[in-house]
Amino acid sequence: MRSGHLSLRRKLGLTFLAVIILGSLLWLIFGSRLIRNALIAQAQAKVQHDLNSARMVFNERLRAIEAVVRLTAARESLRDALVTGRTDILGKYLGRVRSENGLDILNLLDSRGLVLVRTRTPDVTGDDLSGDILVRRALERKTVAAPQIISREALARESPEMATQALIEFVPTPMAAPREGNSETSGLLLEAASPVVGEDGAVLGVLTGGILLNRNYEIVDRVKEIVFKDERYKGREAGTATIFQGDLRISTNVKRASGDRAIGTRLSAQVKQAVLDEGKTWLDRAFVVIDWYITAYEPIHDIENRIIGILYVGMLEQPYLDTAARVTRTFALIAALSMGFLFVLLYLSTTRIIRPLQRMAVAAREIARGDLSHKVEVSSRDEIGELADSFNLMTDHLRDANAELVEWGRTLEKKVEERTQELREIQAHLIQSEKLASIGKLAAGIAHEINNPLGGILIYSHLILEETPPGRPHHENLKKIVKETTRCKDIVKGLLDFARPKEPEMSPADIPEILDRCLALMERQALFQNIRIEKSYAPALPRVVADGAQLQQVFMNIILNAAESMNGQGTLGLRVDLDPVRNELAVEISDTGRGIKEEDKARLFEPFFTTKEVGKGTGLGLAISYGIVRKHQGSIEVQSEAGRGATFTVRLPVNRRAA
Question: Does one domain contain both 414 and 535?
């Protein structure tokens, strides 16, 4: 080996090693990224579901307050006491109702909106609450409930303790938006109001009740208990819930570094912009107090649809990142083991390739020294074996040529002529090979036109069959020729239809009309004589913009498969409904046949897959139907159990303007 030059073994080894390493790295990078994205997407879907659960808990508490207020206002004893002016009795009774139902306030107002009874501070009465939107609605004989922002002064009238409970000092929070002041004095109240109606239908007064959410952890802890079940990760709570007043945490189980609830911390500026300012639902990762969470935020509206707060649920992002890291490490280990295995395989493969070449190099040096009897011993049957055989054959020729030169030195001209003749023969052989190659290309081109001869064979075989009486010996053979030629032509046509699908010619189409046309074409066939057809078309169905001929092909394929599945006996169901939510027509074709095995469902729409006997199906019908429906921006679904029939559902979008 010359110094400064790489050997063939090293060149092959380095080349394949570079390919292996690059492929492993790409697989590791893209695989780990896909898994991480999949885990985060799964977490986002879960946290969105958790937000729905939190909203249900929040609304359930509001409805419970509304129910207490409504039922209490409807009591006859309350109405009678209000008519007779027995406010002392009312105060004791309403105070007991407030305590039993866990309410912070429960007040009775007269028909002008003036406070008659205040259960927390009985001495503070007579103030006018007619300006409260809930009170106004109740005076209009409506029972209403909604979150409300209550000022410090109003809270102080209800109870000094409530004013103190609502007062929250701002805690410096990373990534929070700037805000004036250093504390919040107003409170967020879940409040309900219901009219007290006399026997004559007149409004005698209004009963209002509610709970203050500031530093009230009933709802958020209930959400954590229901949704996250107190799950922890590395000593930390994996899931949290929060109620915001504006961008301020007033009720939460998010913890600060000290372990205290993060009351007084504030929302990040990015989430505040999206949820409070723009009124959107936030579903993404966000920085919450001291860590990153996968979060969901949605605005809380008052009765006038103003955004007054935010409902939040979130899960620690770290468990999902750690899971992704573990999967990445597993991928890396698998990649390393694969690289080691491939490296060993590479070494063995290059040795198998290089060793015969080394033997040929030694043989070439021996031949160069004049030893024409030296041969290469190679037993492989691949290209290297062919090269060794050619090398040995060359050595034999050289030895023979050398003998001929010694023996026939005087007949050089004759030998030249013989060699010239051999060259002519070789040239003629090459020309013949080129002709054969050209004929091969021509044959390949003719293969593309095979459909036309098949058509001719089919036509003429039909003609001969019609001219041959049934009793003649060749009649059955001709029938087999026609049958198999038809099958070949159907296979070619189906393959062309699948490979080069025709673009649909769109126009308004009536789906029930197309189904009826399909039945009219097939129900007179012998296969359909014992099949009961049940149709159920919803009234006033809109038209769809589609290619009616192509949809007819789809429905006929499915209907024919259903009839064959039932062996000509059973019930064929056709149902067409409008899905107003998805704005789609749902076409259901069901049968009572043998059904579809679970392992066959995933392959139903693959080309050439069929469960029919050999020669009774090409396996292209459903594949072509699937392509047609996809061209119409629709979908095909199948529901089936073995032995219980099958239901194919074709969904097609409705374009009302075009219809």
Answer: no
CA distance 591 to 571: 6
Fill in the DSSP letter of residue 597: -
What pLDDT score does 446 carry? 42
Q: How confident is the model at residue 6 (pLDDT cuts 50, 70, 90)?
A: low
Strand pairing category for 187-197 and 183-184:
unpaired
Separation of CA 592 from chain center: 31
CA distance 659 to 651: 17
Tell me if residue 294 falls in helix, strand or coil: strand
Helix (H, G, I), strand (E, B) or coil at 254: coil
Identify whether residues 109 and 197 lie together within a single domain.
Answer: yes
Look up the CATH number of the domain holding residue 57: 3.30.450.20
- Is 467 part of any domain? yes
CA distance 562 to 648: 9
Q: 45, exposed or middle or buried, with CB in 10 Å at 0-12, 13-18, 19+?
A: exposed
Instruction: Give the range of the structural domain holding residue 428, as residue numbers without chain letter.
Output: 408-447
What is the CB-side half-sphere exposure of residue 610 using CA atoms within 13 A? 16
**Residue 171 placed within a domain:** yes
Query: By mean pLDDT, which of 33-42, 151-160, 220-229, 518-527 is the weakest?
Result: 33-42
Measured CA to CA in angstroms, residue 588 lies from 534, 562, 573, 632, 634 at distances of 11, 12, 8, 17, 14
Nearest to 499 by CA among 616, 623, 615: 623
The count of structural domains within the chain is 5
Contact at 8 Å (CB) between 84 and 199? no
Dig out the tokens for 493 from the structure.
């046509």
CA atoms within 13 A on the CB side of 418: 8
User: What integer pLDDT is reported at residue 449 of this predicted model?
Assistant: 55
E strand segments, 510-654: 530-537, 544-546, 569-579, 584-591, 635-640, 646-653
**More confident of the two residues 280 and 37:** 280
Half-sphere exposure of 373 (CA within 13 A, CB side): 0
Quick one: 433 and 383 in the same domain? Answer: no
Burial level of 452, CB count in 10 A (0-12/13-18/19+)?
exposed
Contact 565, 591 (CB under 8 A): yes
Q: Which of 162, 45, 52, 58 is nearest to 107 (CA)?
A: 162
CB-facing half-sphere around the CA of 134: CA atoms within 13 A? 25
Q: What is the DSSP letter of 380?
A: -
pLDDT of the residue at 412: 66
Element containing residue 289 per DSSP (H, E): none
Note the pTM of the prediction, 2 decimals.
0.50
Mark whether 514 and 638 lie in a shared domain: yes
Residues 635 and 617 in one domain: yes
Tell me the per-residue pLDDT of 483-509, one tens digit each, with 9 for 90 and over. Answer: 667 766 666 665 555 555 567 888 898
Q: Residue 179 has what pLDDT?
A: 84
pLDDT, tens digit, for every residue of 436-454? 344 334 433 444 456 667 6
413 and 395 in a single domain? The answer is no
Q: Terminus-to-terminus CA distance in the chain, angstroms?
A: 80
Residue 142's pLDDT band, with cuts at 50, 70 and 90, is: very high
> CA-CA distance, 260 to 256, in Å (whole number)?
6
At 306, which helix (H) or strand (E)? none
> 321, 352, 378 — which closes off a domain?
321
Token pair, residue 446, equals: 């003719």
Q: What does each C-alpha distance from 646 to 299, 574, 590, 593, 649 come to in angstroms?
A: 45, 12, 6, 7, 10
Q: What is the pLDDT of residue 487?
A: 61
Q: 268 and 136, same structural domain? A: yes
